[in-house]
Amino acid sequence: MRKEPRNRFPKKEEELHRINHRITVREVRLVVEGQEPMVINTSEAIRIAEEQELDLVEISPNASPPVCKILDYRKFLYNQKKKQKELKAKQSKIVIKEIRFGPNTDDHDFNFKLVHAKKFLEEGSKVKAYVFFRGRTIVFKDRGEVLLLKFAQELAEISVLEAMPKLEGKRMIIMLNPKKK
């Protein structure tokens, strides 16, 4: 009874690139470092890869003929994942910090929250400041708007106001972006 050759690569990785005997075209463009790309028979390219104890990997399947390289496939996948991680780490994540006021917020509480907002903006986070109107306090909309505008004015040196205060349900909201350095 003849045994099937053991699959060296898990199913997930097979779908990314065709390798070795999974390349079904007759001819491939073989790219070897330090040499000109050459169009050769697929079986010949696989034989060259096996002599070097490496894999023939289809890099560009849509080209005519498909472009292949001889390399260690596991190392190739590892390097690709590593590059993707580095790119992901370099992406900036926008963090939004919220600061909540009541329409009757006192000066001491206002200043306390102002210090926190400055710290958040200096860290590079956006600040969402809002006045929450509970119950009948909704009649003090003008107080809430004055409070938010005063807040934005105090932070004008280190932030940019995205939009004027707007009422959404029981909240009056402003967004502050940190100034670019």
List keywords for this structure.
single chain, alpha+beta, four-stranded mixed beta sheet, Translation Initiation Factor IF3, five-stranded mixed beta sheet, 181 residues, Ubiquitin-like (UB roll)
Explain what this protein looks like in three dimensions.
This protein is α+β, with helices and mostly antiparallel strands and 181 residues long. It has helices at 11-14, 42-51, 73-90, 107-123, 141-154, and strands at 27-31, 38-41, 55-60, 67-71, 96-101, 126-132, 159-161, 166-168, 171-178. It has two domains: 11-87, Translation initiation factor 3 (IF-3), N-terminal domain (Ubiquitin-like (UB roll), Roll), CATH 3.10.20.80; 96-178, Translation Initiation Factor IF3. The mean pLDDT is 84.
Blueprint (SSEs and pairs):
Layout: H1 11-14, E1 27-31, E2 38-41, H2 42-51, E3 55-60, E4 67-71, H3 73-90, E5 96-101, H4 107-123, E6 126-132, H5 141-154, E7 159-161, E8 166-168, E9 171-178
Parallel strand pairs: 1-4, 5-6
Antiparallel strand pairs: 1-2, 3-4, 6-9, 7-9, 8-9
Shape: rod-shaped
User: Count of helices?
Assistant: 5
The biggest sheet amounts to: 5 strands, mixed
CATH topology of the largest domain: Translation Initiation Factor IF3
Helix vs. strand class: alpha+beta
CATH superfamily of the largest domain: Translation initiation factor 3 (IF-3), C-terminal domain
Offer a concise description of the structure.
With 181 residues, the chain is α+β, with helices and mostly antiparallel strands. The protein has helices at residues 11-14, 42-51, 73-90, 107-123, 141-154, and strands at 27-31, 38-41, 55-60, 67-71, 96-101, 126-132, 159-161, 166-168, 171-178.
